[in-house]
From TrEMBL:
GO terms for molecular function: medium-chain fatty acid-CoA ligase activity. PROSITE patterns: AMP_BINDING. GO terms for biological process: fatty acid metabolic process. Residues 396-472 form the AMP-binding enzyme C-terminal domain. It comes from the Bacteria. Signal peptide: none annotated. This is Acyl-CoA synthetase. Belongs to the ATP-dependent AMP-binding enzyme family. Residues 12-344 form the AMP-dependent synthetase/ligase domain. InterPro entries: AMP-bd_C, AMP-bd_C_sf, AMP-binding_CS, AMP-dep_synth/lig_dom, ANL_N_sf.
Length: 481
């Protein structure tokens, strides 16, 4: 098959490719570094990547893909229990990391390969196919530990080429973002996307409005972010006129991973003259829809299906909705080359995720306008929380809370939050009602076991959880008056 990154050999060697802070690589340097690393890992089944927001992570993932080896990005903030599960499930042969990075105990038995971004080696030429795994990305389900979504090479090329069509994305574009590099948004769209186009990416390390303004003033053309970032931009605009001017220079502002509130859309447009484009995707599907650069940026929608993506809405019984009126709610199902192939080691979950004729059940509920625009209205289940751009399963937080000695029962929900989109709320029945565990104690307990962004922001203490006749917790009854 053709290369995922033709620019590594076809672009001018001195063209800027990656910049992280004051460290950067040209296409010539990136190709050489990836060649050297690919030679070391060629033939491995899978390699883990300690996915810090650094140059080494980008080199590690690109080198793995160039070598025809599947990469398993790891969240450096994950707790040891979560990492232990991912390690045993994915069984990588080595872990790639930046020199000097301290790795936690669950990675201790793995061969460690330090990524040298200044090394040089020949361009690899592995025998790979479109269906070969490119990434295994772990995603939180509504119950149990994260599942490893196996993303084939053709899904990456399909999604990135479809986005190039929708966003008129070319080698002349320079992208700026501060997204984490262990999930699809920051890694596939935010790093692999520019490199496939032959363009450039500048990673902020940590998101900040001043960094965005600086890079846009220095020639960046596109910004990717999650709603929390755009909310902070909207909040800062009245006090930062230079930020408004810089955003006004951008060719494209893209928000994803959760819905951007209409109020933030309106504030940003009023201050900058720019409209934020939204798109919709999942770990398992990569990108499904987007507002097009040459289309109407309709606030509150995620646009139309991307080229090559089939999308339908279905009733609760699976009957397809055939007439779109902008009001009828159905579950989104998608089909196309952008889809993952399986959940690693979970044939049961894989089978349950697809209809018999190959449509993926997203679990997202939406309405669709007569002209094809899609507006997502919520989850089919109540157990997936979208907070700060992350999709978080309530079940694994509940399991972590139940490991605390002071917790007898626990339920987790999400509630609206102006900054995060949703904040995580825990409803706890304490072992000792006279001495319930404090919010901070429980938040730290969850953060240590899972990841900081999965900690509850609010804890309510109850004498009992509301349950139905079958003993199932009735989460819709969990409301704080």
């Amino acid at each position: 098959m053709s290369s995922l990154f033709p620019a590594l050999t076809g672009a001018p060697a001195d063209r800027p490719a990656l910049r992280f802070g004051d460290r950067s690589l040209t296409y010539g340097e990136l190709g050489a570094a990836c060649g050297a690393l690919a030679a070391r890992i060629g033939g491995a089944g899978r390699v883990a990547v300690w996915a810090t927001p650094e140059l080494e992570t980008a080199v590690a993932v690109v080198a793995a893909l160039q070598a025809g080896v599947a990469a398993v990005p790891l969240n450096p903030k994950s707790g040891e229990k979560e990492l232990g599960h991912i390690m045993s499930d994915s069984a990588p042969s080595a872990v790639l990391a930046a020199p000097g990075d301290e790795l936690p105990a669950p990675l201790g038995d793995l061969e460690r390969i330090d990524v040298d971004v200044r090394a040089a080696g020949p361009h690899p030429d592995p025998q790979v196919s479109d269906e070969d795994p490119a990434l295994v990305v772990y995603t939180s389900g509504t119950t149990g530990p994260p599942k490893g979504a196996v993303i084939p090479r053709r899904a990456i090329t399909t999604t990135l080429d479809a986005l190039a069509d929708a966003w008129q994305w070319t080698a002349d574009d320079t992208l700026v973002h501060g997204l984490p590099l262990f999930h699809v948004h920051g890694l596939v769209l935010g790093i692999l996307g520019p490199l496939r186009r032959g363009g450039s990416v500048r990673h902020l390390g940590r998101f900040g409005t001043r960094g965005v303004a600086r890079e846009l003033n220095d020639g960046a053309t596109m910004v990717f972010g999650v709603p929390t970032m755009y909310h902070r931009i909207a909040e800062a605009l009245p006090e930062e006129p230079e930020l408004a001017k810089a955003l006004g220079r951008a060719r494209l502002l893209v928000s994803g991973s959760a819905a951007l509130p209409v109020h933030d859309h309106e504030r940003i447009t009023a201050a900058t003259g720019q409209r934020v484009v939204e798109r919709y995707g999942m770990t398992e599907t990569l990108m499904n829809t987007s507002v097009r650069a040459d289309g109407e940026a309709r606030a509150g929608t995620v646009g139309v299906p991307l080229p090559g993506v089939e999308l339908r809405l279905v009733e609760e019984d699976g009957t397809p909705i055939t007439s779109y009126d902008g009001e009828t709610v159905g579950e989104i199902q998608v089909r196309g080359a952008n889809l993952f192939t399986e959940y690693l080691n979970r044939p049961d979950a894989t089978a349950a995720a697809f209809t018999p004729d190959g449509w993926f059940r997203t679990g997202d509920m939406a309405v669709r306008d007569p002209d094809g625009y899609v507006r997502i209205v919520g989850r089919k289940a109540t157990d997936l929380i979208k907070s700060g751009g992350y999709k978080i399963g309530a079940g694994e937080i509940e399991n972590a809370l139940l490991e605390h000695p002071g917790v007898r029962e626990a339920a987790v929900t999400g509630e609206p939050d102006a900054d995060l989109g949703e904040r995580i709320v825990a409803w706890v029945v304490p072992e000792d009602p006279q001495s319930p565990p404090a919010t901070e104690e429980l938040a730290d307990h969850v953060a240590r076991r899972l990841a900081p962004h999965k900690r509850p922001r609010v804890v309510h203490h109850l004498s009992a959880l509301p349950r139905n006749d079958m003993g199932k917790i009735m989460k819709r009854a969990l409301r704080h008056d």
